[in-house]
Amino acid sequence: MVNQPTIATLRRDDRFMGFLLVRMAEQRQSNKGDKYLDMTLGDATGDLNAKVWDSKAVPPQVGSVIKVRATVQEYNGRLQLRVEQVRAAQPQDEVDMSALTLCAPEPPEAMLKEIHDTIDHMRSEDLQKILREMLSACGDKLMYYPAAQRLHHAERSGLLHHTVSMLRTAKAILPLYPVLDADLLLAGVIAHDLSKTAEMLSDEMGSVKDYSTEGLLLGHLVRGVTEVRLAADRAGVTGEAVLLLQHMVISHHGEPEFGSPRPPMFPEAEALHMIDDLDAKMNEMEGVMKRTPVGAFSEKIWSLDRRLYHPSYPGREDDAAQPLPFEPAASAAPRRDVGKAYDGLL
Question: What pTM was estimated for this model as a whole?
């Protein structure tokens, strides 16, 4: 892999030869009846669609590494690889997998510990018991599962990355909104996406080859509601806390068109929805900024239904030395005591 260009640096008409990770591969048929291979290939910097115009080409296994020789083309405003030759990677190739797989920026062990530390500081024993049962049911999958197949936090350990990032955001805003119950909001953050470990089929590289049958028929919101109830039953927990946590799981997408059959109906559920949406969009936008040159517009991001602009950010190099443009005002309402237990966890 010496001197291999990255996906993020490729431009139209470039020639590429190197190793890439197979994220999707299917044999399809054109309008003229010709068979071809449609793939999504990637490295740690991004993904590209790739086409092999050979009716005899066999789809490589998702999660495998292949060596390709290709030309970068543009189709409908997006870059695409036209593959001329392809073969499976061999042991003697000594492929550097860290260059091919997008990983969370922190070790999964550290992120999981942060989640457990958060649970340990909760005052609600009922929520503690439910969350520990839910985490135990996920097992080792938490160490490598992504948060999505192609959208936000689609990386190894992305589910932990998304959850911990949301926890830090929640802890930051709790002092600003005394109406929020800290235990309930943080429990919702931890529980809201855990059922993605059953919704998707991921290998240990964090590459999702497909959705499970249950994932396609039910989805992680409905499955999550069931998991909360099962965890509560195993832990011997009853009462309203179970129902509230179930509601937060099933409403965290906010609207029916995005999969939630109920809108958020109490403050913690609304806060969970907004933190989830914020973290997902910021993660997607960060990825787009990394592959978009300064001063240029990205391709249209279909999940956001818009193109993004990468600002030049004048003076950013000196930002760290600049004072804040304002001092945060003290909240008129006192902090709830329930939030103080989390002050040292950031």
Answer: 0.71
Residue ranges covered by each domain of the chain = 7-99, 108-287+335-342
Q: Where are the alpha helices (DSSP H) in 252-335?
A: 267-291
Q: What is the CATH number of domain 108-287+335-342?
A: 1.10.3210
Distance of alpha carbon 272 from alpha carbon 116, whole angstroms: 19
Same topology, domains 7-99 and 108-287+335-342? Answer is no
Per-residue pLDDT reduced to its tens digit, 44-70: 888 899 999 988 889 998 888 999 999
> At 32, is the secondary structure helix, strand, or coil?
coil
CA pair distance 286, 304, nearest whole angstrom: 13
Pair type for strands 15-29 and 65-75 = antiparallel
Residue type, 236: G
For 238, residues 6+ apart whose C-beta sits below 8 A from its C-beta are 232
Q: How many CB atoms lie within 10 A of CB 64?
A: 14
pLDDT (tens digit, 9 = 90+) per residue, 219-257? 899 999 999 999 999 999 999 999 999 999 999 998 877
Instruction: For domain 7-99, give the CATH number.
Output: 2.40.50.140
User: In sequence order, what are the beta bridge partners of 46?
Assistant: 43
Q: What is the DSSP string of 81-124?
A: EEEEEEEE--GGG---GGGTS-B-SS-HHHHHHHHHHHHHT-S-
Q: 92: buried, middle or exposed (CB in 10 Å: 19+, 13-18, 0-12)?
A: exposed
Torsion of CA 302, 305, 306, 308, to 10 degrees: -60
- Nearest residue to 273 via CA among 258, 286, 288: 258
Q: Give me the amino acid identity at 48.
A: L
Distances in whole angstroms, Cα of residue 107 to Cα of each of 104, 143, 146, 308, 310: 7, 9, 14, 30, 29
Cα–Cα distance measured from residue 106 to residue 102, given in angstroms and rounded to the nearest whole number? 12
Which amino acid is it at 140? D
Helix axes 219-235, 125-138, angle to 10 degrees: 120
Looking at the chain, how many residues does it have? 346
Q: What gap in Å lies between CA 186 and CA 308, rounded to an integer?
A: 31
